[in-house]
Amino acid sequence: MSLTLDLSGRVAVVTGGTRGVGAGIARAFLQAGAEVVVCARRPPDTPVTAAGRTAHFRPLDLRDPAAVRAFFLQVAAAHGGLDCLVNNAGGTPYRLLAQTAAERHTRVVELNLLAPLTASLAAYEVLRDRPGGGSVIMIGSVSGTRPSPGTAAYGAAKAGLDHLARSMAVEWAPGVRVNTLVLGMVRTELAALHYGDEAGIAAVGATVPLGRLAEPAEIGDACVFLASDRAAYLTGASLLVHGGGERPAFLDAATVNHPTLPEVPEEIRHDGTGDLR
Fold this sequence. Notes:
Blueprint: E1 11-15, H1 20-31, E2 35-40, E3 49-50, E4 53-54, E5 56-59, H2 65-79, E6 84-87, H3 102-127, E7 134-141, H4 152-172, E8 176-183, H5 191-195, H6 198-205, H7 216-227, E9 238-241, H8 249-257
Parallel strand pairs: 1-2, 1-6, 2-5, 6-7, 7-8, 8-9
Antiparallel strand pairs: 3-4
């Protein structure tokens, strides 16, 4: 049985698809044969291309609901419909809560939670008419699953985005599937701004069980799968794409402080339910 994911004849929109993770997602859809529209406030420095094909760019401010509604109607008219929306646009600077005005934190929530809601509602009007059903993919973050000091508003928005996707999945079934990719760290052209030089990036990657940061193309592959017929029974799901997550800090602390910890006898390790004693 072939596992090739062919999206030929389908139309996908990737918000924030002009660089970084978004461009990686757009390229993966192009390689799978889909017609791809990327949107952002500014055009890409170079066109987003893959497999000899180019994504269409349309300018859009996702904070303008009227413009967002018009955008999706225009995409559907120009390309014969819409099959998939990838809500990728987002991000945040590093801002400690008490050192920043509430208005700035509010803008982060608007971009990472309210903008995907606005886009999804507008896209739903055309997605629900597709004969094979439509798909919405939220790009979430591990920041929404653990404490996120310095990016607390971002983490809160991403946690809300995951919950929003689960509710959408129930309300919009069976016509539109809604899923979330929960991302860990990804190596993009901006990685050096966050992690420093190549040595810094490698050191950060070493904290991940798989030993490296994800590549944008790998995020794109996961999106193509969720948009494909192979994922026809997946909705309301949260797919972790984080290389195994983060090694618990207490394990390393125990090793450093007690390098010769005695072995615990098997008969007292567990009480039969899996609870450590």
